[in-house]
Amino acid sequence: MAVHLSFLLILTGLTGIHSITTVSKVSVRVGGSITVPCLYDSKHINNVKYLCKGPRWNVCSYEVKTNKPSSSGKFLISDDKKQRVFTVTINDLTDKDTEYYWCAVEIKDGADLKEYFHLSVTAGAPSLYVAQQEITGFKGDSINIKCHCQNSGERKWCRLGGSCVTRSGSIDGTRVDVSARNTGVFTVTLSGLRTESSGWYRCVKGNLQMPVHITVTEKPTTIAATSQITTLAPTSKPVNHTSSTAEQRLSTVEVEQQSVSVNLMVFIIPLSSLIFIVTVASFICLMFKRHKQTTGDSPATIMGEEEVTYSTVKQRRKTSGQLHRAEEEVTYSDVKQRKPTDKINEGPDVKEYFHLSVTAGAPSLYVAQQEITGFKGDSINIKCHYQNSGERKWCRLGGSCVTRSGSIDGARVEISALSPGVFTVTMSGLRTESSGWYWCVKGDLQMPVHITVTEKPTTTTSLRTTLKPNPESLYPTQVSEEQPVSTVDGEQQRVSGNLKIFIIRLSLLIIFAMVNLFIWFMYKRQEQTIVESSATTT
């Protein structure tokens, strides 16, 4: 009996009935997207792969093929021949997308290979989901994957086409620990990552699975981390040059604030010390002039003339949603001024390319502004306008991504698409660590956005919003939601206003003192005239 059973299993493997491996049932929220991997046999690397939709194989309809992409962008398919996995992505999910789907491989002489999975689209939170399907880790390090669940059943962590772990164990040499400390979520920890650990896995809870793709890369060395030219696909977080400049400018403002406090001492000086008052006024006027020079817009005074590189020229340029050739032109002289420290002393330079597309009309993906400022603890909204198709995401440069809701470095991220052609990213509970570069992602396009998080001002903000409109006012009368006023600039304007008020008061004091001196002088002269007249009479 055992011999017959072994023979049937061998025959089943030879016929290739189960040569496609995928998930069996997934659950996704309305409006979201899902990527499902389909593992196939190595002998079908060059075959056409496709996705078919329908409750039964003989009545299903073709949705997308590797040799015939979908024009609507609703369905996307890609084939990784090295990993022997083709993935299908379904975007903008609705209730009508709840159905059986078939991963299939086209066979010229014979029946096509197929394996189905069931997709359930829910109005509320899915029964099993993860914050993001794409996770990146470094070789030798550890990563955590949180699987949120609302259903019952055994929890597992499985490799696609490989083994599973229910509590602790190893998969392909990587240590796996599954823990459930909180209700409704279990955490999978992969430690001692290896290059072979890259690939597709799945969270399993009961009869539901959620695919997760893990990419393991080499850990960057010290030289690469300090000298790498960061673009849209880095492996380390960029250095925030803006924060250091802002700290220098803020320290200048604090020095100016200390000089303004002198006006509290001026009014207790006796009128006989006018020379000292004039000296103090001259000193503060000199400081005011220096303050204006320090906080000007010249790159030479802020960055230093030798530091005007390609990145600073590009960063100081304002983006208006449509790229103009005249504004975006960067000459060779801009690039060649890069300091020698930008090169790696030993070995080839670290590099990464990006493609810039200049369009006559509206770009396929753009934002109203690339520089956004928010206050610590508050929320900001970023509207990403698009005309192309594909999955929408919000990613941190060198960090993680969010497709619908989740968190990045402690800040809550929500992505909503209430209007066609635009999706809104809301970051709430901002922290100081939230400052840095992010990007809107739609399909294969990205748009970088820089976010600066500062401390919330106390008095300055209320004054800006209550004053009546006045073109000559020292403070702006409106603060746009997507264009918040920088804290440093606000402090500088407040200092300038205090200096002007102080100079006006000082001028009035000097005039008052001069009038008193003139009256005293006239009184003394009149008194002397009376004495002389009395002496003559006597």
> How do the strands of the widest beta sheet line up side by side?
1-8-7-3-4
Straight-line N-to-C gap: 156 Å
Helix content: 25-40%
Number of strands: 28
Q: What would you call the shape?
A: elongated
User: Which runs of at least 5 residues are low in confidence (pLDDT < 50)?
Assistant: 1-17, 223-272, 290-341, 460-488
Q: What structural category arises from helix and sheet content?
A: alpha+beta
Strand content: 25-35%
| Mean of all residue-level pLDDT scores | 75
Cα gyration radius (Å): 34 Å
- Helix count equals 11
Largest sheet: 5 strands, mixed
Please tell me about this protein's structure.
It contains eleven helices and 28 strands. The chain has helices at residues 2-15, 222-227, 241-260, 263-266, 274-294, 299-302, 310-315, 325-328, 332-336, 459-466, 487-537; strands at residues 25-29, 34-39, 49-53, 61-65, 75-80, 85-90, 99-105, 113-122, 128-129, 134-138, 143-149, 155-159, 164-165, 168-171, 174-182, 185-191, 199-205, 208-217, 365-367, 371-375, 380-386, 392-396, 401-402, 405-408, 411-419, 422-428, 436-442, 445-454. The strands form six sheets. The protein has a five-stranded mixed sheet, with no helix packed on it. The protein has a five-stranded antiparallel sheet with strand order 9-11-16-15-14, with no helix packed on it. A five-stranded mixed sheet has the order 10-18-17-12-13, with no helix packed on it. α3 packs antiparallel against α5 and α5 (274-294) runs antiparallel to α11. The protein is elongated, with a radius of gyration of 34 Å.
